[in-house]
Design a protein that fits this description.
- By secondary structure, the protein is α+β, with helices and mostly antiparallel strands.
- It has 11 helices and 12 strands.
- The longest helix has 44 residues.
- The two termini are 29 Å apart.
């Protein structure tokens, strides 16, 4: 009986080609939108994580609070020697002073640090050299790529130029190449003027080490770095409150956010699918109206209500499944075009295909149920007369 109903449903759908095609278009667009949105969201997520990993997942930032003081320079240097999970550590001192060139203001922050900062970030100077502890209290500066563009209406900065930081003149000894910003690095390198650590004391009375940039021995398990640092510092700085930010934490946060965006995109796409489902219901209602006499004859010959109901329900499901398959292919193709045009890696979301198939069947059952019930409840006599 089931096979007979399927065969009759297929014949009916083929017989009403125009109506079937209109219903299919709605389902194809709806399913295609859902699949495309989910896949594009997955592609964007994978690309974001890949780019972040390319900047280095062995970088972490440590901020210390508590006790009314921060870690000293020697304590920072001892981290790499005392903790096996840390290869290098660089102190970061932000100095809140203005930077000018010939009286023209430069948009830049001033940071005191050591050579390790540039090694951890794998930064090489495009011209000249980077500042270091060996520079002592000398007024030397290494500037980022954007700072090197100079004042808005002035010429770009060159090696040997002098810029004014606070109340002191500094000689530019190095210019950095543009650097991709790493979310873990609390310094925008391109917009920064780097000065020697000791020199920061000539610029401000507040030269506490606010952040410490760390390169770890590879990508560590979650919580391993926090535990190692806390254990090491507890011996001589038990008052320190630690705030450790690792690449693993950021990647987990990024993936959580991207999953939310993907769900949101899928929800937006499902609106088109609902519209397609309504189209299927309308087509099935029209079909029930046009086939009233056929339904009456079937019931007069002994067909039960559930047979009539299953006949129309199967038609609705066939429409939705066919539209779901075509829509799934369309959605994957749209995601491929997106990846191809952006140059990003194409991936298929693991849940895209089963989700598309499941949603299309659900739409078929949900929107086909009412017309099927309507058909099964027709009065036999009135149906044979073809009345309402």
């Amino acid at each position: 009986m089931l096979y007979q109903n399927i065969a009759e449903a297929i014949a009916n759908l083929i017989g009403s080609r125009q109506r079937t095609l209109l219903a299919l278009i709605g389902i194809v667009i709806g399913t295609g939108s859902v699949i495309a949105m989910i896949n594009i969201g997955t592609i964007v997520s994978e690309e974001a994580v890949r780019r972040f990993r390319s900047l280095g997942t062995d970088i972490a930032t440590l901020s210390s609070y508590g006790g009314g003081s921060s870690l000293g320079r020697e304590e920072v240097q001892s981290l790499a020697a005392g903790i096996g999970a840390i290869r290098m550590a660089a102190p970061i001192v932000n100095v809140g002073v203005d930077v000018t060139k010939d009286g023209e203001s430069l948009r830049a922050q001033v940071v005191g640090t050591t050579r390790q900062f540039f090694s951890i970030n794998r930064i090489q100077p495009a011209q000249g050299r980077i500042v270091d502890l060996l520079d002592g209290f000398h007024t030397f500066a290494t500037v980022g790529a954007e700072v090197a563009r100079g004042p808005r209406d002035g010429p770009p900065l060159t090696l040997g130029d002098r810029i004014r930081i606070g109340t002191h003149d500094f000689e530019i000894v190095g210019i950095l190449a543009p650097v991709d910003q790493n979310a873990l690095v609390p310094v925008n390198t391109d917009w920064t003027v780097f000065v020697p650590m000791d020199t920061t004391r000539r610029l401000s009375d507040r030269t506490d080490i606010g952040d410490i940039l760390i390169r770890t021995a590879g990508e560590l398990p979650a919580g391993a770095l926090e535990q190692a640092v806390a254990s090491y510092l507890s011996a001589f700085r038990p008052d320190i409150v630690l705030d450790v930010r690792t690449a693993r934490q950021l990647i987990d946060q990024m993936q959580t956010q991207m999953r939310l965006y993907t769900v949101l995109l899928g929800a937006i796409g499902s609106i088109a699918l609902i519209v397609g489902g309504v189209g299927v219901m309308n087509v099935m209602l029209v079909s029930v109206t046009e086939r009233r006499q056929e339904i009456g004859i079937r019931m007069a010959l002994g067909a039960r209500r559930r047979d009539i109901q299953s006949l129309f329900l199967i038609e609705s499901i066939l429409l939705s499944v066919t539209g779901g398959i075509l829509g799934g292919l369309l959605g994957i193709a749209a995601a491929w075009v997106f990846a191809d045009q952006t140059g990003w890696t194409f991936v298929v979301a693991p849940l895209a295909i089963p989700l598309g198939a499941g949603v299309s069947v659900t739409v078929g059952v949900f929107f086909g149920f009412y017309p099927a019930v309507m058909a099964s409840r027709l009065n036999v006599v009135e149906a044979l007369r073809g009345g309402t």
